[in-house]
Structure formats: C-alpha cells, structure tokens
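ok, trying the design again with the full structure, not the truncated one.
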C-alpha cells in the first residue's frame, strides 16, 4: 500500500492537472478521504485489536498521537496509552506520510459485512432462534429447512430473509424482542437508501436509539450477556460517515464480491482448468452478450413470451406485462365472481372505465366474457431514493381452493 499510494503524496503537495466534467483543466490536490475494507483489515490498518468495541472510534484515536505511541513502543518504551487505546504492534504505517489523512475517520460503512452478515445474521438471527413456520406464497422465498442449515449466505439471501423475519417472529417472541428486530431492520432499510435527507438521517438515528432502548430485554431473557460488539458499535458512526462521504450504498462491498463471483469464480469453473485465461475471457464475453440480450428483452419485450402494453393511465414510462397465452380465456362474469369471489367486479370495472376512459361508450354487462390471467406485472419508474431498478408491482389472481 505504501508503494501504491506514494504518488498521492506528491500529488497532494504539488497538485496534478485533471480534466473536469466541463472539459476545463484544473489543478487538483487529491487526498486519501475514504478507505473501504473488511473489519479485520480495518483493525490492521488502524493498528487496533479486533476484540474491543471501540477499536475504530475516531474520537478516541488520533492519527498523530497513535503514530507517537507506536514510535515509542518501537524504541523499547512501554507507554500506558498503548494498552489503554487497544493498539497492536504495527510500526510501518502506509498512511503516516500522506497529508491530511485521518485513517480512523476514513473507514466507510460496509452494508454487506456489517449490516447483512454482521448485525442481522451473526447477532439478530441468533438472538431469535425460535422461528415459526409460515405458509408458502408466490414470489416469496421460503426457507423450508430453516435458516440454520444455510452455510453460505449471499447478500440476496440476507435481504430475502429480512423481508419475512418480522413476520416469522410475530407471536413467537415477546413484544420487546419483536421491537428489537423491528428497529434493527428499520435501520438496515434506511441505511441502504441511495439518497439521504435530513429526515432520513433523523429516522436512521431514531431507529438506532429505539433499538438501544429495547435491547436490554435480550439480557433479561439470558439471550446475550453484553453488547460490547464492534459491528454493533460501528452503527453509531453511520450518520457521521454518510454526512461526510455520501450514501453508504456507494461503499458497499456486495458489488465487488458479486463481480468476483461472476468474472473469476464462475468463468474459471466453466473452463477445463487448462489454459483457462483465454477460456475465461470467452465465457465472460458470451455471458455479457447474453445478459445484454436478456435485459433488452425484458425492457422492450423482444422474443419474450409476454405482452407489453403502454399504460396510458399512468406516466409514459410505466407499462404492464402479462402472458401471451391466457390460462382461462372467455370467462363469464358469473364464473369470475364465483371462482374468485369478486362480487363487485362489474361495478368496479364500470367505475374504472368511467374514471380513466371518460370517452368510452362501451358498458360491460352481465353477459360479457373476459380473459382471466394469473398475474399482471406493472412496471413503474424506479424510486431513485432507494434503487435504480424499476418497481414491479405484481397483481395475482388465484382460483378458490376447496377446503
């Protein structure tokens, strides 16, 4: 790291010419502002021990004083601050000569390892081991064998589990334990926002404060002995980090881990393990082309067994999709009302047409027939506050099952 970041010292002192977005050339003085790393690497870089809750507290650790303490230890002295600050013997610091660098302040939140795999999986899930069974539901991932048998969790599996976790605990745990899970998940969802406001940061602070107000129930129930947990303590620095460096989503290690799996592991496994570099490159190119084709297909409906229609009732960027083949075509109104229990089908349809298509002259009646689909997907513009992905709303129709 010293060799890698050595040019940054000269660039910070003398400046470097860079082309800006407006094509103007300006002299820039770059600094090391943020550092993305896993918790063990953070402790190693900051010369702190891993087994204490305040190892990465920028308030308790000052870069200059830390360098002085380590230098005194290096020459044989034994300053009491070494043990008081829980330091470890790392004498060659790559960041010591970089101007205006506060390494303790530079560490950014890591949603994957601190929130999903850390606070949620390693602690909250273990605190709430008694999981109740839930009925199956279309589109909802069901952990049929429980969650304790899952050996390798991915970010997607963590998010799927978080979707159902509060529902699993409802009625199976005391109300205060349910509140602990509720506020931790609230914190998790707020911190994943791509755009933050004063209100969202206040909600983030409120969720963390309510968690601390209810967490003692875990000690009363002998579930956990203490809360001197480094990953839990790191949550207190999220608001400061977001205020300084922007949304935590920009520093999430989930993206590079996914890319490592796609570009390295999967492509290597697809080769014959001999001269695998060229084969990995070929697999990567083919996969990229297939992915691009799939995205275009899903976006424009080319070659896909779905119908896409522009919905004039909403914004121009919204549309809906449904299967080309109707599973229940030409159904009478009586059958629709009897099979699906839609007693207000005709009045609701007439009201819908009158409100949204006022110039329509057709009035649906009791003798008309309609095609019945199992589902329709309404694709809406993304909520950029939370994600760049379009919002998909699924409307499902399920036949009545006899008791």
């Amino acid at each position: 790291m010293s060799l890698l970041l050595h040019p940054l010292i000269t660039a910070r002192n003398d400046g470097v010419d860079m082309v800006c977005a407006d094509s103007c050339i300006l002299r820039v003085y770059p600094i090391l502002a943020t550092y993305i790393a896993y918790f063990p690497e953070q402790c190693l870089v900051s010369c702190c021990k891993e087994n204490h809750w305040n190892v990465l507290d920028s308030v308790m650790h000052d870069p200059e004083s830390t360098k002085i303490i380590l230098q005194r230890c290096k020459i044989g002295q034994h300053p009491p601050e070494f043990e008081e600050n829980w330091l470890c013997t790392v004498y060659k610091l790559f960041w010591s000569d970089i101007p205006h660098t506060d390494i303790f302040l530079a560490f950014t939140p890591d949603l994957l390892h601190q929130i999903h795999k850390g606070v949620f999986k390693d602690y909250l899930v273990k605190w709430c081991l008694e999981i109740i069974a839930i009925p199956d539901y279309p589109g909802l991932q069901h952990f049929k064998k429980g969650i304790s048998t899952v050996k390798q969790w991915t970010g997607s599996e963590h998010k799927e589990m978080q979707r159902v976790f509060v529902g699993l605990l409802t009625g199976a745990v005391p109300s205060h334990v349910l509140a602990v899970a509720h506020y931790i998940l609230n914190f998790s969802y707020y911190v994943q926002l791509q755009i933050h406001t004063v209100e969202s940061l206040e909600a983030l602070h409120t969720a963390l404060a309510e968690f601390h107000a209810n967490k003692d129930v875990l000690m009363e129930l002998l579930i956990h002995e203490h809360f001197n947990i480094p990953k839990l303590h790191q949550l207190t620095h999220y608001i400061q980090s977001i205020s300084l460096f922007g949304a935590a989503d920009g520093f999430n290690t989930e993206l590079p881990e996914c890319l490592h799996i796609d570009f390295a592991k999967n492509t290597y496994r697809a080769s014959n393990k001999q001269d695998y570099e060229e084969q990995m490159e070929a697999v990567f190119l083919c996969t990229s082309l297939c992915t691009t084709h799939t995205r275009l297909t899903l976006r424009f409906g080319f070659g896909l067994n779905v119908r896409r229609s522009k919905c004039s009732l909403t914004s121009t960027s919204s549309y809906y999709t449904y299967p080309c083949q109707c599973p229940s075509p030409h159904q009478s109104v009586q059958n629709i009302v009897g099979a699906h229990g839609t007693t207000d089908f005709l009045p609701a349809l007439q009201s819908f047409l009158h409100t949204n298509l006022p110039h329509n002259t057709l009035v649906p009646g009791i003798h008309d027939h309609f095609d019945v689909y199992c589902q329709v997907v309404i694709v809406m513009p993304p909520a950029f506050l939370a994600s760049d992905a379009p919002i998909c709303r699924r409307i499902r129709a399920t036949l009545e099952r006899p008791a």
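Keeping the full-length input from now on. The CA atoms of residues 60 and 85 lie 8 Å apart.
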